[in-house]
Specification:
The complex is a heterodimer of chains A (508) and B (351).
Chain A: E1 22-27, H1 32-47, E2 55-61, H2 67-81, H3 88-96, E3 98-102, H4 108-125, E4 130-135, H5 142-151, E5 162-166, H6 174-185, E6 193-196, H7 203-213, E7 227-235, H8 244-269, H9 278-291, H10 300-303, E8 304-310, E9 312-314, E10 317-319, E11 337-342, E12 354-359, E13 366-373, E14 393-399, E15 403-411, E16 419-427, H11 428-431, H12 439-449, E17 455-456, H13 458-476, E18 484-486
Parallel strand pairs in A: 1-2, 1-4, 2-3, 4-5, 5-6, 7-12, 8-18
Antiparallel strand pairs in A: 6-17, 7-13, 8-11, 9-10, 11-12, 13-14, 14-15, 15-16
Chain B: E1 2-8, H1 13-30, E2 34-36, E3 40-47, H2 51-59, E4 68-75, E5 82-89, E6 99-110, H3 117-121, E7 130-134, H4 140-146, E8 152-155, H5 163-173, E9 178-181, H6 182-186, H7 188-197, H8 201-204, E10 210-217, H9 222-236, E11 239-240, E12 244-246, E13 249-256, E14 259-267, E15 276-283, E16 288-294, E17 297-303, E18 309-315, H10 320-331, H11 339-349
Parallel strand pairs in B: 2-6, 3-4, 3-7, 4-6, 7-8, 8-9, 10-14
Antiparallel strand pairs in B: 1-5, 5-6, 10-15, 11-13, 12-13, 13-14, 15-16, 16-17, 17-18
Classes of the chains: A alpha/beta (508), B alpha/beta (351).
Chain lengths: 508, 351
């Protein structure tokens, strides 16, 4: 597509920059993700006037329904799941721009009809729309769809950009991820591929970049010289719900650690990028992943812990254990809790343990990074009984209360020098007027704009799997039932064995 | 939603400030989940008879509520200050969640207090966060009095019947404060769409060939159109010429690099809300784009150099006047570098 090197003088000061007219194609357009997230996100962008000035949507799915039925389904989804009440006029106009193509993803006639519909939009407008293909399907269809796009010449256009958005998971192990990347990149350039990790679309995750690189306060202490250890926690208080089919195949390590939690780790540990362009940021993140030593087979049991939730109490209610959940295979050895001890072997981080843990049916829902600083070298008033002195902690909370807190030692009022930890807290909710947009709103706009900063590059995904793969292999060689932890608890006791003497897991 | 209220007649700023601290302390003792919002102070100066209407407008700004609002209701002849302090908690926090507290202070005071309003409100603003002042019923002396406290002044230039006075006042205020002008914010979707129109390469080349711009507007919103013209002049390097009146319209020219650009401001009697009703931009090579309000967004009509016409709707919900005010409050935390140059050009067009 022709681009002008000269800046558009009219965009100065505008919050919303122009986006080229776009036709968005959703594969899996009647699926759960499309209904709950994608269509409501697109509506919210339309409501705010943030979509490209000309926008069309084509849904593709197996259900054999006419355009109007698809529009009605979209209307119902948006009405039910949008974060704001729908404006009838905007919604109606948006639905007018929707088309539907029924069929299976390996059926050539689907792509022929897709091309006709997309070209019809171009001809009607007298311009060529960019194409964004959003693959909201089971991963097994990713290579099928990309292959068919290539066969039908839909992978590239002379006068417009073509991009493909791929949902996670990118494979279930390194070999699958490499094979999927190979298949996708045999048709597309990497610059056309947008691998979504919706965690990166969350404002609070992006705020980590601001926290680290917009504040001179923290950079001098952000190294092995001052940091004792780091804990990254993604705890959920809910069970697997109706996702047994997916979860029993996946488990906690693949579901959260391989993608979301390693993303948090890289943002925490990366060096400052030269600028915030997509590749500069991703280059720095990949360097961190490369610096993580994947466990050798004999190290897996010392560097990791896994467990399943058993029956217990959650929210005051008795709840079933994982093995009793509907849809879970008898005797399943899928972990619902995973904890890891990793190290980033580079100049900045060498020797600093970085602990990751995630689990379902834990005591509380929380996603946070806790950075524990080294203790002060000498405590002058120790003799006066200041047993309350603790190393400072910097805690970055992603959810539920997004913010930053720093624990400090403070004197307890009185005649003696007694210390106890107090918190200095900053809560995003108290300091900004606007509510955060849904992650999918940001990511869909970025894909339409062609900004890949918040998407995962091929080498990044593979570097993630290089860390996780040996753990999966090590676990597969272990026999016997998994350790259990009661639902609603802090997790299994086995996780404590990963910590060094004097360290402890933060309370969930 | 839960409210704690304190009130007093014939009171003082220090007594009100002490009451605020006491209410906050009480709230904090009830639980750590109650956190005071600390984003923005808003000082509003209103005529007492319109206090309720302004309070209603502020209620409807949705998520853009200021953290602490100090509403000064001016009553001619009043001597003492009466005060009501309300601490409002939004939502009912579940364990682990946060509930934001917002404070509203309503002061009934006399006209004679406006010239030194700073001595009244200084003790009541939260320090170290942005302070915005808005005086929708005039009272310029009140704004002048609190300019040392407020970094941002909210104005609505379409409320001033004389565009020259409106633009002059905004220019004066922008000398030592950041001005958020609701008249400017009403033109934002229009500016975004014109910028988008001229973004693709075939249209970008036409920027230098724009030959005329017509803006249709709500009759009292002429200044919103002037600001739009000012924006085009300042961004495209046009030298603004004086606009002259003609049958209720204003018309004139700006000098572009490749020739003159005709400018026309036309009142649209059908338009019932403040702001712009439509825009038409034409180029010397025969291209044109027209944008008009329509259901579900802006109705766009475009003609290419070859005479091909197309029409579509640029999707977007109307923000309404409450939305515009909310946007004005949000903008107090941002900085738009395009407004002051646009304002300067608008002033030049008024001669």
């Amino acid at each position: 597509m022709a681009t002008l090197t000269e800046e558009n003088p009219l965009v100065e000061g505008l919050e919303r920059l122009p986006v080229h007219p776009t036709t968005l194609v959703i594969f899996g357009a009647t699926g759960d993700l499309a209904k709950r997230k994608l269509l409501p996100a697109i509506y919210n962008l339309a409501h705010e006037g943030a979509l490209p000035e000309r926008f069309n949507l084509i849904g593709i799915s197996r259900s054999d329904i006419p355009h109007d039925d698809y529009r009605e389904m979209a209307r119902e989804s948006i009405t039910e799941f949008s974060r704001r009440a729908a404006d009838e006029q905007v919604l109606s106009k948006l639905l007018e721009r929707m088309r539907y193509v029924p069929g299976t993803f390996d059926d050539d006639s689907v792509y022929e009809q897709l091309e006709r519909e997309a070209k019809g939009f171009d001809e009607e407008a007298g311009i060529v729309f960019n194409r964004v293909f959003y693959l909201s399907t089971a991963p097994s269809f990713f290579p099928v769809i990309v292959g068919k796009l290539g066969e039908h010449g839909l992978d590239r256009m002379q006068a417009a950009d073509v991009r493909v958005v791929i949902e996670k998971p990118i494979g279930t192990n390194l070999a699958e991820a490499q094979e999927l990347n190979r298949q996708v990149l045999s048709v597309l350039d990497e610059s056309q591929v947008f691998r979504i990790d919706h965690y990166l679309g969350k404002e609070t995750v992006q705020n980590m970049l601001a926290f680290r690189f917009a504040n001179g306060l923290f950079e001098p202490i952000w190294s092995r010289n001052f940091i004792e250890y780091v804990q990254i926690t993604a705890a959920e208080d809910i069970g697997i719900g109706t996702r047994a089919g997916y979860y029993d195949q996946s488990g906690a390590l693949r579901d959260l650690v391989q993608n979301h939690m390693l993303q948090l780790l890289t943002l925490l540990c990366m060096e400052p990028p030269v600028n915030f362009s997509a590749d500069e940021v991703r280059d720095e993140k990949v360097k961190v992943l490369h610096a993580i030593h994947p466990p050798e087979p004999e190290e897996v049991s010392n560097m990791t812990a896994r467990a399943q939730y058993g029956p217990g109490m959650s929210g005051g209610e008795q709840v079933a254990g994982y093995l009793q959940e509907e849809g879970v295979a008898d005797g399943s050895r899928t972990e619902t809790y995973a904890a890891l001890r990793l190290e980033v072997d580079n100049w900045r981080w060498a020797g600093v343990p970085i602990y990751l843990r995630t689990g379902k049916r834990l005591a509380r829902k929380v996603t946070e990074i806790a950075v524990t600083l080294r203790p002060v070298p000498h405590l002058a008033f120790k003799a006066q009984g200041s047993v309350g002195v603790q190393p400072n902690q910097i805690v970055l909370t992603m959810q539920p209360n997004e913010g930053v807190s720093i624990s400090l030692g403070a004197k307890i009022p009185g005649s003696r020098m007694r210390i106890r930890p107090v918190n200095m807290e900053f809560l995003y909710g108290t300091a900004f007027l606007s509510e955060s947009p849904e992650a999918y709103e940001r990511l869909i706009m970025d894909a339409m704009r062609g900004d890949a900063t918040l998407f995962t590059r091929d080498d990044e995904v593979e570097a993630q799997w290089r860390i996780v793969d040996p753990i999966l292999q090590g676990w597969s060689q272990q026999d016997g039932p998994l350790p259990q932890y009661p639902a609603g608890s802090e997790g299994p006791e086995e996780a404590s064995s990963l910590l060094e003497p004097g360290q402890r897991w933060r309370a969930v | 939603m839960e409210e704690n209220v304190w009130s007093a007649e014939d009171t003082t700023p220090s007594a009100i400030e002490a009451a605020l601290r006491e209410l906050l302390s009480e709230q904090h003792l009830r639980g750590r989940a109650y956190a005071p919002a600390r984003v923005l102070n808003l000082i509003v100066v209103v005529d007492r008879e319109w206090k309720g209407e302004i309070e209603n407008r502020l209620e409807r700004v949705g998520r853009y509520h200021p953290s602490r609002t100090i509403l000064c209701a001016v009553e001619p002849g009043r001597g003492a200050i009466d005060a009501w302090v309300t601490m409002r908690v939004e939502g009912d926090p579940r364990p682990g969640e946060l509930a934001l507290c917002r404070e509203r202070i309503v002061l009934d005071l006399g006209e004679h207090q406006l010239e030194r309003l700073d001595t009244v409100v200084d003790a009541l603003v939260v320090p170290d966060i942005a302070t915005l002042v808005w005086s929708p019923h005039g009272h310029p002396e009140a704004i002048d009095a609190v300019r040392r406290l407020a970094q941002v002044v909210l104005v609505d230039s379409v409320n001033e019947p004389d565009p020259r006075a409106a633009v002059g006042r905004a220019r004066d205020l922008s000398g030592d404060a950041y001005v958020v002008d609701l008249a400017w914010l009403r033109s934002t979707p229009w500016r975004e769409r014109v910028a988008a129109t001229f973004d693709p390469s075939p249209w970008r080349e036409e920027l230098g060939r724009i030959s005329s711009v017509t803006v249709r507007h709500h009759p009292p919103s002429q200044v919103a159109g002037l600001l739009f013209f000012g924006w085009l002049c300042s961004r495209l390097g046009w030298r603004p010429g004086a606009l002259v009146g003609r049958n209720g319209s204003l018309a004139g020219k700006a000098s572009g690099r490749r020739g003159d650009v005709g400018l026309a401001l036309e009142p649209d009697e059908r338009m019932s809300v403040p702001g712009l009703a439509g825009i038409t931009v034409e180029t010397a090579s025969g291209m044109s784009i027209a944008l008009d309000r329509g259901p579900g967004g802006l109705r766009a009509r475009r003609v290419t150099r070859k005479g091909q016409e197309s029409a579509w709707t640029v999707l977007g919900a109307s923000r309404g006047e409450a939305g515009i005010l909310g946007e004005g409050i949000r903008q107090a935390l941002l900085r738009d570098p395009a407004y002051r140059p646009a304002l300067a050009c608008a002033e030049a067009m008024l001669g």
